[in-house]
Amino acid sequence: MKPSLQVRISQHLALTPQLQQAIRLLQLSTLELHQEVGQMLDQNPFLDLDEDAPNPYETALDRGLADDRAGARAQGADGERAGAAEGDDGAGGDEGAALAEVGDGDFGTTAREDWENGTEGDDFDGIRETPAAGSGAAAGGDGDEDEVHERRAAATSLQDHLRAQIGGMRLAAEDRLALEALIDSLDADGYLHDTLEDIGARLALLLELPDAQAREALDARLRCALRWLQNLEPTGVGARSLAECLVLQLREHHGPSPERRLAIAICEKHLELLARRDLRRLAVLTGGTDAQIRAAQAMITACEPKPGRPFAEVEGQIVVPDVIVRRTRRGLEATLNPEVMPRLRINDLYAKALRGQRGQAPDLSARLQEARWFVRNIQQRFDTILRVSQAIVERQKSFFSHGAIAMKPLVLREIAEELGLHESTISRVTTAKYMSTPMGTFELKYFFGSSLHTEAGGNASSTAVRALIQQLVAAEDRSRPLSDSQLSLMLEEQGIQVARRTVAKYRELLRIEPAPMRRAQA
């Protein structure tokens, strides 16, 4: 086959790096954008934060604390100058010099060693001591104070809490190793989902046990360690199922009684019936009276199903709205939240220096162009968010007056056609972006919903239907809760055609329990 050259004409779409960056920035949340800006500031010397503008990620509380610290520093400086002036007049100067000498000498060295050893401000028994007024510890710098606050704010994990309890137990080295292996295998809720056999197999592989006899001894130590673990606080930790967790708490917190025996029997054999609140069936199967069944139910519901919950690391992300909607004389007005907009600028000093060396530093020229594109793409991101938000507000005016029940059907395609953007762009804009309104703060996606047919020939938003279902359930008779079929019929009476399966789906999205579980106790 002879090689040959051919010329072909074709068209294709190529995404430039600048366009790729613009698309990526558009889909980032506020927190992710903050991280992206921080990385770019570290990597690109031509990019700076505008120091005259407020920090877009600093809250009002942070600014207030910073102002307080600045005022305290100013007062301290004034006090030092006043003390120095008094010291020049008499014995105060000698006393101040002596205090300064002590502060700069042995105490400073001791404090630094304590800090490095992790014992600053702690006695040998681990109890924090409050420094006396005027001591070096009390007069430490802001950096030390911040570190102390951070250490106090650090929450103790479940594993650390359990290890602190076994610290006082007199255990052999092998038993302690087995107990720590179980502690490390706990999940965030305090449950031990792995079997003892699996944990023993991993531990045996790690310890390189020589024979089956040593493995059997290890399994026996793990079984014993499990009993020790389940006797630690919080009660219920180390359970391998919900039933076992509840039984451990019932035995710990309640003395022997017929009601406790009944509660334990329910947890071990009939927990599903209790979840469905089928008290009559429970009475038949257990032989307990109605009063005993209710007392046992009260004992069980008082237990903690997740004993590790107080120690779980909850990342409470505060939702910062990207757009703020206010009522003005001209109507509803959508504006960008200035608190989330990074104030970026090009470093003029570096840019001017680079212009004086044209052609001599191509890498630096590329970094300067990168910084300019980044600033431009950030601005374009917020402009697009504002345009989409304004279009949403215009389409959903009734929502801002009457709530979710007045929401109109809206799909991404409608906003995309109105603004001349692609539907995927609208999807990126409305994901993880939030709008603060007089009705509350909502994700932009909340304002979109499919349409359902009505008898009048119009359409109803699925969001409005969910809100209506929530209202109907809230007003129901608790002794006779509405079933999904009844809710479907009630919606049909109001002219909205919704199938029972659709009602069930919306009810689950609203986290509303089925009718049998909503039935109030007689």
The secondary structure category is alpha+beta
The number of helical segments is: 24
Helix content: 55-70%
* Overall pLDDT level: 77
Evaluate the radius of gyration: 33 Å
Name the overall outline.
Answer: extended
Number of strands: 8
Biggest β-sheet strands, sense, barrel = 4 strands, mixed
Query: What distance separates the N and C termini?
Result: 90 Å
Instruction: Please report which band the strand proportion falls in: under 5%, 5-15%, 15-25%, 25-35%, 35-45% or over 45%.
Output: 5-15%
Q: Low-confidence spans: pLDDT under 50, at least 5 residues?
A: 54-62, 83-154
Side-by-side strand order of the widest sheet:
3-2-5-6
Q: How does this model look, in words?
A:
- With 522 residues, the protein is an alpha+beta fold.
- Among the domains are: 159-229, no CATH class; 242-311; 323-447, no CATH class; 451-518, Homeodomain-like (Arc Repressor Mutant, subunit A, Orthogonal Bundle), CATH 1.10.10.60.
- 56% of the residues lie in helices and 6% in strands.
- The chain has helices at 17-27, 30-43, 60-89, 91-104, 106-117, 142-153, 158-166, 173-184, 196-207, 212-229, 242-253, 258-269, 271-275, 279-286, 290-301, 348-355, 362-395, 399-402, 412-419, 423-429, 462-474, 484-493, 500-509, 515-518; strands spanning 47-49, 323-328, 331-336, 344-346, 434-437, 440-443, 451-453, 459-461.
- A 4-stranded mixed beta sheet has the order 3-2-5-6.
- The protein is extended and about 85 Å long.
- Residues 54-62 and 83-154 have low confidence and may be disordered.
